[in-house]
Amino acid sequence: MMNHFKIGMIGFGEAARAFxxxxxxxxxxxxxxxxxxxxxPLSAGQIATACAELDVRHADEARQSLSDAEIIFSLVTADxxxxxxxxxAKWLKAGALYFDCNSCSPSAKIIAAEAIEAAGxxxxxxxxxxxxxxxxxxxxxxxxxxxxEAAIEALEHLGMKPKPAGEKVGQASSIKMLRSVIIKGLEAxxxxxxxxxxxxxxxxxxxxxxxxxxxxxxxxxxxxxxxxRMMVHGARRAAEMREVAATVRDLxxxxxxxxxxxxxxxxxxxxxxxxxxxxxxxxxDSILKRMDEERDKGAAAIR
Length: 303
Fold this sequence. Notes:
Layout: E1 6-10, H1 14-22, E2 30-34, H2 44-50, E3 55-58, H3 62-66, E4 71-74, H4 81-88, E5 97-100, H5 106-118, E6 122-128, E7 140-144, H6 148-157, E8 161-166, H7 171-200, H8 203-213, H9 219-250, H10 256-270, H11 280-302
Helix pairs in contact: 4-5, 7-9, 7-10, 7-11, 9-10, 9-11
């Protein structure tokens, strides 16, 4: 179908590298990647490490990534998704498929779609529905918008696993956003409950009570995992939850839970506590110690 085609990537962080490293049927594809966060342009060697089967090249600027690309993946932070789409609209090839894989509100994706479509591109709302590791390119994707059929064909050509989510831009992202209230909310609830329980010296009793109420979950293991997600990915999760809050408000509902989840995710991430120990008590102790240090530092600054 698409022999000798160019793939452009805007953003080459964890998700982009995970996707590209798993592509098994690139059929002579050229990958050109650009990441604004890199102090220096990504070297071909850096990209090749992640994408051994592709002809890999780096871009000094976004334009080089986008020009003549048949398909483009946007994998940036949520707050940069709309600016990235507007920048891409200046350079993309007519008919190019633009996969917006960012965790943004449906309203933000609709605005991004307008920019891409006005420039002659084909905008696709993509929601990544699981962590990219260990699944890599096999992470489940939901795809929506008027070009969903063509998008699914292109993604399957790369060995990915897309499913249709509707004919309108925003349907895939709505599912992702509203699911995140539960997934990221459970993480925030874990932080508030388990950190307080550890400080009170009753965490084992709390875990035992939860285990008795819902024996289908290993509560100690899940709680440790939830803390790890916040410690490692909290900043990105907080950005996503602010988009979730916008989604809820756009639907005419209060965003109380989503806003609180974002605050917890931000707070844990900002502590920069290593997540190398997987024991729940040790993780809780490390977080509590850093929180105390930050509190004492703030108090000293006021005096």
